């Protein structure tokens, strides 16, 4: 596996042998196909970070992320979400398949 | 490192994002035409209502065409949500003028994707969009021709009834 990008909390790998990607979430290594990576990118893009700073819209400042056809479930706080956004944006940038994703919802 | 993304998907992610925006725009156009059909039904313009029902289904076909294309390319097509629909119009002419403006917005958006695809050398997308460019010309012409009827026949009374009778689904 080749390390593509590491953020504060997470690391993004590519496996040429398996033709897939891995994200090390610390307590868990998640294998993602390209389609699952696109789905995660889409999910991250729909998160409104502004809502985390409004107690009416996101009372506890958490996001529930379900990955890989609901195989994995993560509960991430604001810092972890921001870090995951950075990880994905930079990893996809390094791979040359997309520009950095914005930190706010599109 | 292998280019896994290219092995899995035939178009660029940036172009896929633009196509997903276009899917949303076509869905909005379809729903918007339904709102116009509703107004026409309520104001006794049955031919115009039929015309807009037909337009609504045509826009949905456009949406599906793009949706299928993104899927066929190995991308991630997003089923769109439709918000902020206008159901309020003052006159039949305003309905058609709004429809023309909507088509112009769609045309501009397609030109924008075409331009981005050309810049990214995404020739597959460029080729795919050619059909939409021709289609948009026809759509705009249809609405321009209808708006010309108001200039020729008038905007009040029986003229509106005659205009309505002349409007037929394409």
Automatic annotation (TrEMBL), chain A:
What is the recorded name of this protein? Uncharacterized protein
Species, as recorded: Arenibacter aquaticus
| Lineage of origin | Bacteria, Pseudomonadati, Bacteroidota, Flavobacteriia, Flavobacteriales
From TrEMBL, chain B:
For this chain's UniProt record, which GO biological process terms are given? intracellular iron ion homeostasis; iron ion transport
The answer to whether the entry has keyword Repressor is: no
What does the entry list as the binding residues for Fe cation?
26, 59, 62, 103, 136
**Do you know which InterPro entries this protein is assigned to?**
Ferritin (IPR001519), Ferritin-like (IPR012347), Ferritin-like_diiron (IPR009040), Ferritin-like_SF (IPR009078), Ferritin_DPS_dom (IPR008331), Ferritin_prok (IPR041719)
Q: Major location, coarse class?
A: cytoplasm
Record's SUPFAM superfamilies?
A: Ferritin-like (SSF47240)
Alphabetized UniProt keyword annotations: Cytoplasm, Iron, Iron storage, Metal-binding, Oxidoreductase
Q: Does the keyword Transmembrane helix apply?
A: no
Q: Which residues form a coiled coil?
A: none
The record's Gene Ontology cellular component field reads: cytoplasm
* Listed GO MF terms: ferric iron binding; ferrous iron binding; identical protein binding; oxidoreductase activity
Task: Name the protein family.
Answer: Belongs to the ferritin family. Prokaryotic subfamily.
The task this protein performs is described as:
Iron-storage protein. May alleviate iron toxicity in the presence of oxygen.
Q: Which protein is depicted?
A: Ferritin
User: Origin organism of this chain?
Assistant: Arenibacter aquaticus
